Amino acid sequence: MDELEAALVKLVAEVEDLKEKVRRNSSNSNLPPSSDGPGAGARIEGRHKKSPSGRKRGGQKGRRGAFRELTPIDRVNDVVELYPEVCERCAFALPKTSDLDPRRYQVLELLGSRPHVTEFQRHEVECSRCGHHTRANYDAKTIPSSPFGPRLVSVVAMLTGVYHLSRRRAQQLLREVFEIEISLGAISAIEKRASEAVAPAVVEAERVVEQAEVKHSDATSWLRAGVRKSLLTIASALATVYKIVDDGSRETLRPLFGEVPKGILVTDRASVFDFWSLEHRQVCWAHIVRKFVAFSERSGEAGAVGQELLDCAALVFDHWHGLVDGKLTREELAVWMRPVQLQLEAVLKRAVALGIVGVSGSCANILAYKDALWTFVTHEGVEPTNNHAERELRAFVLWRRRSFGTQSERGERFAERVMTVVHTARKLGKNVLEFLIRCCTAHSRGTTPPLLGIAAASRPP
């Protein structure tokens, strides 16, 4: 009884210590507020909870709007003067006479490492015949619709959408490095313009991954204004596509892979991917090995079974690396892997029969996917792990941790589109910034947008 009481006292102390660690936050420790996570304010006891106002986010109706001020004329680099050719009343030819108060339009561009301002001036000229005043027409083909040039738009899109700076930090960088003053609202508008500019290239990437013979996929959570969403990546050798959707259910994810499933899909054992036939699927061995490690760290029969399974997994990767290093042919790999397959399945069946809590159920689940464990042995281009998709997803995961997701649907489209184009362009060895500039230039001019040229890259030289 004394030993039991002593053990109880020790356990109670450990529980209290764990409870204290769970309750620890920025209000009762030296932890930073960023460690609390989204929505933590309402959960922290004693913290003032602000009542919702019921108003929408952003500027309210009736507030005075903020507008970008024109750069003083002495700081303008280039001036394009536009004059009316004929009087709009009597059609008499007009001289190119400048007026003192022309309509001014400015485009801020980034040339090299310095801002460059181009000003367009629509002059008003008095007709010497009838005295009517005619102003030069607004020509959308001459005067850009955006006050920001394609290169500046592309750089801002990379700062926030690729290097994942917050808009405020991007604003600070533009001011301190490039001497460019730009508002947070303007950065949001630039993101929208960049998102629209790369949309055709995103469609191209989507078609490529749909038709790919081998593709990797993985999913994780995403947040929009604190509401949980799902982020999916589908990656082939030539393209990577990201999609942010309302949830990670099978019904939601299935349409993202095309009307007809094509090729071999490499994933983990998540049931949401079960719409893909096991004969054309490869289950990630890295996830399975981590499960085996957890088994081996337990005591008794569970630990013994886990160690046997780990030994089998070690042989799997040993033979696989033999193929990768050129020591084995694919035919030899199949011969060497066959006894490992039989041994692994025998151990899994024995583990199921033992009825070990927390082990037998997992082993039964792995057996249910046995037809998808060995696809990499016989199919060229298939790997035993899903590391490709996990690496592609990691940048987005780090972005989520720093920013807690996006705040609107428009922000989601910008995030998934820019990341899709950038990761695909890098796979193709393209200059990311130059491609974005081409997209934004075509979008501003209303011309045919450029594509990534993935199909051409897939053809042998």
Structure, explained:
The chain has 461 residues and is of the alpha/beta class. Among the domains are: 73-143, no CATH class; 197-279 and 387-458, no CATH class; 285-378, no CATH class. 45% of the residues lie in helices and 13% in strands. It is built from 14 helices and ten strands. Strands 8-7-6-9-10 form a five-stranded mixed sheet. The radius of gyration is 31 Å and the shape is elongated. The termini are far apart.
Labels describing this entry:
461 residues; alpha/beta; 5-stranded mixed beta sheet; 3-stranded mixed beta sheet; elongated
Give me the secondary-structure topology.
Elements: H1 2-23, E1 78-82, E2 103-111, E3 114-122, E4 124-126, E5 133-135, H2 150-161, H3 167-178, H4 184-211, E6 214-224, E7 227-235, E8 240-245, H5 250-253, E9 264-267, E10 281-283, H6 285-296, H7 300-324, H8 330-354, H9 360-368, H10 375-378, H11 387-403, H12 409-427, H13 432-445, H14 454-458
Parallel strand pairs: 1-3, 6-9, 9-10
Antiparallel strand pairs: 2-3, 4-5, 6-7, 7-8
Apparent shape = elongated
Number of strands: 10
CA distance, first residue to last residue:
81 Å
Instruction: Indicate the low-confidence ranges by residue numbers.
Output: none
Order of SSEs = HEEEEEHHHEEEHEEHHHHHHHHH
The profile of the biggest β sheet is: 5 strands, mixed
Mind telling me the C-alpha Rg? Answer: 31 Å
Measured by DSSP, the beta-strand proportion falls in 5-15%
Q: How many distinct helices?
A: 14
**Helicity range:** 40-55%
- Average predicted local confidence, pLDDT: 90
Spatial order of strands in the largest sheet: 8-7-6-9-10
Computed structural class? alpha/beta
